[in-house]
Amino acid sequence: MNAIQELLNFVYQNSEMGAISIDRLAEFSKDEKFLTALRDQKREYLSINAAARDALCRTGCDEKGLSGMTKIKTYMMIDLQGMIDPSTQHLAEMMVIGSTMGIIDAKKNLRRYEGEDLGEAQGLMDTLCNLEERNVETMKRFL
Predict the structure, then answer these.
(1) In angstroms, rounded to a whole number, what is the distance separating the alpha carbons of residues 130 and 128?
(2) Average pLDDT, 10 consecutive residues per value, the chain (143 residues)
(3) How far apart are CA 108 and CA 143, in angstroms?
(4) CATH classification of 3-138 is 1.20.1260, yes or no?
(5) Cβ atoms within 10 Å, residue 125
(6) What is residue 2's predicted lDDT score, i.e. its pLDDT?
(7) What is the spatial distance between Cα 120 and Cα 117, in angstroms, rounded to a whole number?
(8) Which of 16, 28, 52, 112 has its CA 20 to 30 A from that of 87?
(9) Helix axis angle, 3-26 relative to 32-58, nearest 10°?
(10) Hey, which bits of 1-143 come out as E strands?
(11) Burial class (CB in 10 A: 0-12, 13-18, 19+), 12
(12) Number of CB atoms found within 10 A of residue 71's CB
């Protein structure tokens, strides 16, 4: 896998993680404003996910989704945290932490290929980082 494919796959996996995390978190909330914000974020994650998958396909590479173990660990962590404290404030905090981790991982991945022509991968990474930053700001309203 070359740099572009690696970054596109990172975007694919990160956006997949965002969407599945939102689905799981939403199960704990009854707050309609919060759920609307989550649905809006999920829609954007799915859009980025589809764009990354299409870009990978154009490079001749199949997407590599999250492993089953990664999904199980994520579900378990969200379920445990959600059962301990299902308040909107706590769920929003979990989203802020997850999005911040996504930003950090994206920036680290971009730094690895600094100076290289990343083409469409650069644009999708920027789009993903912008989404994650907007998500943090949106979730702060619920803290």
Answers:
(1) 5
(2) 91 96 96 98 98 95 90 93 96 97 94 90 95 97 97
(3) 27
(4) yes
(5) 23
(6) 87
(7) 9
(8) 16
(9) 160
(10) none
(11) buried
(12) 16
The structure tokens listed for 65 are 């989704």
Question: Phi first, then psi: what are they for 87, rounded to 5°?
Answer: -65, 150
- CA nearest neighbour of 134 among 126, 51, 86: 126
- Are 4 and 59 in contact by the 8 Å Cβ rule? The answer is yes
Grouping H, G, I as helix, E, B as strand and the rest as coil, residue 105 is helix
Give CA–CA dist 143/42, Å, rounded.
Answer: 19
What distances in angstroms separate CA 45 from CA 39, 76, 115, one per listed residue?
10, 21, 27
Residue 104 burial (CB < 10 Å; 0-12/13-18/19+)? exposed
